[in-house]
Amino acid sequence: MESASDVKTINSTEAIQQLIAQIEKVIRGKRGQIERVVTCLLAGGHILMEDNPGTGKTVLARTIAQCISGRMAGEHVVFKRVQFTPDLLPMDLIGTHIFDDRNKEFVFKHGPLFCNILLADEINRASPKVQSALLESMAENQITVGDTTLKLEKLFFTIATQNPIEMEGTYPLPAAQLDRFYMKIYFGYVDETTELDIYREYANIANNLTNLEQILSMQDILNLQDAASNVFLHEEIIRGVSNIVRATREHQDISLGASTRSGISFLKCLRAYALVKGRTFVIEDDLKDISHSVLDHRLIYRNKEGKLKALDSIINKEIERLAKLKLF
């Protein structure tokens, strides 16, 4: 006989798989990347996607928003897309006070940050001042306007993109902001077979985007975030995360290692990833699967060779330790 917790697990698993299936109606051949985006959503964090133009990063963000219903039946969650440019100002994100001529007073007009899902397109093209305006919303789920602090929605998820080419006129993201992204992923091109299918069905794929089912509500996402926070983490898995994080600070090829905050983000992502995979407990394979996505963008390497090998050597050593323990 199934317990109440088993029923909840089954429902969570089904809901997540239905969400991923809906996204795959539009985004083809990117199961791993989709799982990582959903992982960050359920972990209560934010994600940075880097890749060449035209690989589907923007469409993925819009697709996720289309699959989640808002407060009222039939409505979508509030989705905003901001194209970051060098002339963008903080008030373009936060909002500004405008004068209401009828009431003879200044009223605050909310900017695009007051939403549920934000697509920050080409985030590295904006100035550091604009990037810092986004930083508060990502870190503290709030915005400060003058002497007033305004809370954002409980469901606030930022998907930021940046292109690895055309780096002229861009502002590299500071380490403090990179650390706020739970994961950084590379979207990449699809394989030849999938690309041919996309070319054959591009009209149907475009129709799918406008006809997606609202699989989950905003409250469902919040409930899944709660479920993810209750996924079981073995003490040795926690120790494994600690060992990896600390090892990044001591490795000879890494000049800036991972912070304690990154270790906390790592644990949250492990719990959410296990839930995405249909489990209520984290296993060693989860650690291996997402370590690079969680840690790589937070590290500063001394050389190119170190970037290629340092983190792998740290992770593999810890995975070998865990494998000998036979936890599961």
From TrEMBL:
<dbReference type="InterPro" id="IPR011703">
    <property type="entry name" value="ATPase_AAA-3"/>
</dbReference>
<dbReference type="Pfam" id="PF07726">
    <property type="entry name" value="AAA_3"/>
</dbReference>
<feature type="domain" description="ChlI/MoxR AAA lid">
    <location>
        <begin position="246"/>
        <end position="307"/>
    </location>
</feature>
<dbReference type="InterPro" id="IPR041628">
    <property type="entry name" value="ChlI/MoxR_AAA_lid"/>
</dbReference>
<dbReference type="GO" id="GO:0016887">
    <property type="term" value="F:ATP hydrolysis activity"/>
</dbReference>
<dbReference type="GO" id="GO:0005524">
    <property type="term" value="F:ATP binding"/>
</dbReference>
<feature type="domain" description="ATPase AAA-3">
    <location>
        <begin position="46"/>
        <end position="183"/>
    </location>
</feature>
<protein>
    <submittedName>
        <fullName>Magnesium chelatase</fullName>
    </submittedName>
</protein>
<dbReference type="Pfam" id="PF17863">
    <property type="entry name" value="AAA_lid_2"/>
</dbReference>
<dbReference type="InterPro" id="IPR050764">
    <property type="entry name" value="CbbQ/NirQ/NorQ/GpvN"/>
</dbReference>
<dbReference type="InterPro" id="IPR027417">
    <property type="entry name" value="P-loop_NTPase"/>
</dbReference>
